[in-house]
Write a structure and sequence with these properties.
heterodimer; A: about 375 residues; alpha+beta; Butyryl-Coa Dehydrogenase, subunit A, domain 1; Butyryl-CoA Dehydrogenase, subunit A, domain 2; Butyryl-CoA Dehydrogenase, subunit A, domain 3; 3 domains; 4-stranded mixed sheet; 4-stranded antiparallel sheet; 11 helices; B: about 400 residues; 8-stranded mixed sheet; 12 helices; binds flavin-adenine dinucleotide
């Protein structure tokens, strides 16, 4: 048994951690989050130079290795800094789909510039009616010879505003919710017939709702086989779920740390909050939650790397348990801070917001509890 | 044992509900129904309508323009208002400072302040908390030093809710002795917000709203006639006010409304489970959570009625109000998170304008989803203010269990 990271993983962690602690202090993060694009293009270039944008990919594809453990190492550190750069949308969502379903030409066209930091991508999968059911797709694509006509509405597309190319899950046959007939394609974000409403999300990231109105594209933009995309989409969303679980673990550690530190300096009734046993026990309980979350995260990452088909169940266990921990740690951090905790100014409230968004992304806590039970 | 209302009470209930149906403005009703934030004007308009009817001051004695209602009548009124989606009156003037003025103020102060409070002509805010005096309010440091027939006030008040709208602020200040521990040095002072030396700066909360403020006092000269009662008695007055009846502290009816709304919406939201075609309202885990919430709320409703019955027979509300505060806010916050959960991905977009008055952009997501997360974030305050839930728990430990 060995829970230690490999030398490469250790170096990766050190490099991300160093970046977060030296370049990503709270004020810088807030300035970036509030800027027009919501992320720093300079940082993005730096991530490319440092090789971080290759983390989710296999060496054959020019990547770092692509193990789930590599991914959680990176995301946990990002979580500590509440990173707003669209790493998840680009590399994990869009990138995984291209790596898993794309042809070698498509990889050259999309994956290489992605790893070099030269293109912004997004994956549009959710729809207003779908909630977390990935096959619940009404966006439809009609294939006519070598042309495709795309219509529909995709909801809350992460990085949807900055994306230059958008991967879209579409229905090419079957009824809404059928697993058969789901296809994957990519489209230039500036194509005629695309309308985007972009906005900030509650956690300071950016997203957009996107409408496709008779958008035409060549069939060469299809990724993988027509009608057979649901498996790769599910696998990709599970990877993204694992990534945000790791992010949550990083964010929870910081939230707990900041709360404990605050309790040691805030004085009421002539003593620090840290001396009230009622609060001590609650902070100890938060610590237990964080440890349980870390453990189940490692379990899920290792299962994912084993490739023996047990990954979805393991991932659901992690997402469910970490969702529960994220809620408790986020809410308790605010409560123990008191009034200052509900202000926009202090970072602890923003950890809470991100922890909340994580609970409801890529399957809620209840969704994954149910999926665990059913698998 | 009997929980039925008497015939008179039922008639009163009918009268209130008819009045609300006729007089409560449609515009405000729509805003509340669509989770749009109410502005100052909404409150003032509604309170003026209530004042015209003579129902603005439900807790005041009749001699000052109050309703003279029994606790049960007040309860019925609060209930009917919540059912109709009518907001509670802003507490600061009508429920907080007014009782202090009519109980401890002199005749001149009563004449000067009460009519304008009753008519909602002035907006009050509460200046108790300070950066270093939250739960431990008695450690407050803002000073008021007597110079001739004026007090010179220096210090900082914080968390001042809606202070940006306020014409007046009622403050707890330290007069005389600088001994921080001494509660007998705290006085109750009314201050005109237009006085030179007052500076109000907004504090933004997690939902982006400038709901609270920091209020700085820099050599603010306040006429001594604005002191309520005696110097050094402010703490006692404030305490009496706190134990003074606080209506609807549990927010039961409001929570009932929100729960009903939640259930209706869940029946129209797909549950999004893998391979499932059913609605969220049919989902077992969801049903379980909603049922547990509803049961807790039912218990709280009866705890509230029990308290009400005791108050009606003349007993002072004791530590029961701590139970109402703790359970009431926990229930509200559970409803908050269930709304976020129901919104699914549409809980994520933060389009603040969408839940503000006058929004004319493209709405993102279904009804109420847009406001669900901001409401959840903002309302974490409910377990912090008004005596935090930890402080309420301490009260139960001390006052009830004798620990
Ligand atoms: C949105 C909002 C609006 C407000 N509006 C007003 C207003 O209009 N006017 C006004 O005067 N004030 C207002 N307040 C202030 C409010 O009353 C204080 O926030 C509250 O008293 C808590 O004080 P604090 O924030 O300084 O937290 P602290 O007192 O620092 O408490 C921090 C944490 O420690 C806990 N704690 C403290 N003491 C103990 C103890 N002995 N045992 C166990 N736990 C303890 C608290 O419960 C809390 O969880 C408002 C606050 C908020 C958040």
């Amino acid at each position: 048994m060995d829970f230690s990271y490999s030398e490469e993983q250790q170096m990766l962690q050190d490099s991300v951690s160093k970046f977060i602690s030296t370049e990503y202090d709270w004020d810088s993060r807030q300035a970036i989050a509030k800027s027009e694009t919501g992320f720093s293009a300079d940082h993005w270039q730096l991530f490319a130079e440092l090789g971080w944008l290759t983390v989710p990919f296999k060496e054959d594809d020019g990547g770092f290795g692509g193990s789930a453990v590599d991914l959680i190492v990176t995301m946990e550190e990002f979580g500590k800094g509440l990173l707003v750069e669209p790493f998840l949308a680009n590399t994990i969502l869009a990138g995984t789909l291209i790596a898993e379903a794309g042809s070698s030409e498509q990889k050259t066209e999309l994956l290489t510039p992605l790893m070099e930091g030269n293109v912004q991508l997004a994956f549009a999968y959710a729809e207003p009616q779908s909630r977390y059911e990935l096959a619940n797709i009404q966006c439809n694509a009609v294939i006519n010879g070598d042309e495709i006509v795309l219509n529909g509405h995709k909801a809350v597309v992460l990085n949807g505003a900055a994306a230059e190319k958008i991967l879209v899950s579409v229905r090419t046959s079957g009824d809404a919710c059928d697993r058969e007939g789901v296809s994957l394609l990519w489209v230039d974000a500036n194509s005629a017939g695309i309308r985007r409403e972009s906005y900030a999300s509650v956690d300071g990231q950016r997203a957009a709702d996107i409408w496709f109105d008779n958008v035409t594209l060549p069939t060469s933009n299809l990724l993988g086989d027509v009608g057979e995309a649901i498996d790769v989409i599910e696998m990709t969303i599970d990877r993204a779920a694992l990534a945000i679980c790791a992010e949550a673990v990083g964010a929870m550690q910081m939230s707990l740390f900041k709360t404990v530190e605050y309790s040691k300096i805030r004085k009421q009734f002539n003593t620090t909050l840290s001396t009230f046993q009622a609060l001590q026990h609650r902070m100890a309980n938060m610590f237990i939650e964080v440890e349980q979350a870390k453990s189940i995260l490692l379990m899920a990452a290792m299962e994912m790397d084993r490739l023996d088909g047990k990954a979805p169940k393991a991932l659901s266990a992690a997402k469910s348990r970490i969702g529960k921990a994220a809620r408790l740690v986020g809410e308790e951090s605010i409560q123990i801070h008191g009034g200052i905790g509900v202000t926009d100014e202090l970072d602890v409230g923003h950890y809470f917001k991100r922890l909340t968004a994580i609970q409801f992304s890529f399957g809620s806590t209840d969704y994954h509890t149910a999926r665990f039970a059913a698998s | 044992m009997n929980i039925d209302f008497s015939a008179d009470e039922l008639a009163f209930q009918q009268e209130v509900s008819t009045f609300l149906a006729e007089e409560f403005p449609e515009e405000i009703r729509n805003k509340t129904a669509n989770s749009i934030e109410l502005g100052k004007d909404d409150y003032v308009n509604w309170q003026k309508i209530l004042a015209k009817k003579g129902w603005a001051a439900t807790n005041w004695p009749v001699e000052h323009g109050g309703t003279g209602w029994t606790p049960t009548q007040k309860y019925i009124f609060g209930n009917e208002c919540a059912k109709a989606g009518a907001p509670e009156v802003m507490a600061f003037g009508l429920k907080m400072v007014a009782p202090v003025i009519y109980i401890y103020g002199n005749e001149e102060q009563k004449q000067r302040f009460l009519p304008d409070i009753l008519a909602s002509n002035v907006w009050w805010c509460q200046g108790y908390s300070e950066p270093n005096a939250g739960s431990d309010l008695a450690s407050l440091k803002t000073t008021a030093v007597r110079e001739g027939d004026e007090y010179v006030v220096n210090g900082t008040k914080t968390w001042t809710t809606l202070g940006q709208h306020a014409d007046w602020i009622f403050c707890l200040v330290r007069t005389g002795a600088a001994d921080v521990k001494n509660q007998n040095a705290i006085s109750f002072l009314l201050i005109d917000m237009k006085t030179p030396g007052i500076n109000v700066s907004p504090i933004y909360l997690l939902d982006g709203s400038p709901e609270v403020n920091e209020v700085h006092f820099d050599n603010v000269r306040v006429p001594a006639e604005n002191l309520i009662g005696e110097e050094g008695k402010g703490w006692t007055y404030a305490k009496v006010l706190l134990t003074h009846e606080r209506t609807n502290i549990a927010g039961v009816t409001d929570s009932k409304n929100r729960l009903k709304d939640l259930k209706e919406k869940a029946a129209k939201t797909s549950d999004g489970m893998p391979g499932s075609h059913s609605m969220l309202s049919d989902n077992h885990a969801w049903q379980q959570k909603v049922a547990e919430l509803e049961i807790e709320l039912l218990a709280l409703e009866y705890t509230e009625l029990k308290t009400l019955a005791a108050v009606s027979t003349g007993k002072a509300p004791g530590p029961e109000s701590s139970i109402l505060k703790i359970k009431g806010t926990e229930i509200q916050q559970t409803i908050d998170i269930l709304n976020v959960e129901m919104a699914g991905y549409y809980g994520l977009p933060f389009v603040r304008d969408q839940f503000m008055d006058g929004f004319d952009g493209v709405p993102i997501g279904p009804d109420q989803a847009a406001a669900s997360a901001p409401i959840y974030f903002n309302n974490r305050k409910a377990t912090i203010y008004g005596g935090s839930n930890e402080i309420q728990t301490n009260i139960i430990c001390k006052a009830v269990l004798g620990l």
